[in-house]
Amino acid sequence: MSLPRDIRAFLSHYHGQTDDLQASDNLLFYQNRLRCQPDNLLISEIHQRYATFCSWRKDYNELEYNHGYIQWLFPIRENGMNFEAQALQAHEAAAMKEDSDVVERIKASYGLMLDFYGMCLLNFETGLIGRSEGYKARYRNLLQAPHNNLRVTRIFKCLSEMGLEHLNVGFLLHVLNEQSEHKQLNTSLLRDSMDRWWANCLRNEADREWIGLTIKKARNGEVFSREKYEASLQRREKTGFIAEPQLESTDAA
């Protein structure tokens, strides 16, 4: 099956796309120097709402039905439906991933959306994810509102641009474990988004190939357990490779 056009562009690092050096809205927004539109909020104000009980984190309707914020929180090098948001430029991505304050804010944005999806980040270094306290209702919403599948694709592309692709791996394999071992998040529509888009939002070719093979095995009935999930992330953190090491044959020639 051929890859979707947007995934091919992503994997090519948007070959041929020009970098508009005059466009820096995403960088300025994540530096807390520019308000997003149309919500007219600084990134710190969005995260402050997330950190309080009267927040977007708990106002899930705001996160569900407001379509303006997602392009600001997770900018990618493609245009979206909010014409007041700017596509990410190459020079912005380079500056953002080198700015520790920006990276911390991106992590907070990721945490906000994980909570919305019924998940929580347990270990930033490995990308390990667990269920949030109210996961059942949030999982149900994720299945019933498939436009969130497009949001996840955007989140993955953004995290890759920011040098945080290991978080994509943690999310993907968490969902695979939920599908395989617990029969959660397992509709055909979500699986299609996962298999064709999410699993290919990995520029690390070795990771992409191993995860694609692991998903195929799970689709064919092999159980991808929580133990396997955690072991794969730990292996990737320690060795730099998610695939199991191949033992050399000791058989005589």
Summary of the model, kept short:
The chain has 253 residues and is mostly helical. Helix content is 54%, strand content 4%.
Which outline best applies?
globular
Give the strand content. under 5%
Query: Given the helix and strand composition, which structural class is it?
Result: mainly alpha
Put simply, the count of helices is 13
Q: Which residue ranges are poorly predicted, with pLDDT under 50 across at least 5 consecutive positions?
A: 249-253
The helix fraction, in percent, is 40-55%
Strand order of the largest sheet: 1-2
> What is the radius of gyration?
19 Å
Distance N terminus to C terminus?
A: 38 Å
Q: Report the average pLDDT across residues.
A: 93
Order of helices and strands: HHHHHHHEEHHHHHH
| Biggest sheet details | 2 strands, antiparallel
DSSP, total strands: 2
Notes on the protein architecture:
It is a single chain. This protein has 253 residues and is mainly alpha-helical. The protein has 13 helices and two strands; from the N terminus they run H-H-H-H-H-H-H-E-E-H-H-H-H-H-H. Strands 1-2 form a two-stranded antiparallel sheet. Strand 1 (119-123) and strand 2 form a beta hairpin. The chain is globular, with a radius of gyration of 19 Å. The protein starts with a helix and ends in a 14-residue tail after the last helix.
Characteristic terms for this protein:
mainly alpha
Can you lay out the helices and strands and say which pair or pack?
Elements: H1 5-11, H2 25-30, H3 43-51, H4 60-65, H5 70-73, H6 90-96, H7 100-116, E1 119-123, E2 128-131, H8 135-144, H9 147-161, H10 165-182, H11 188-196, H12 205-219, H13 226-239
Antiparallel strand pairs: 1-2
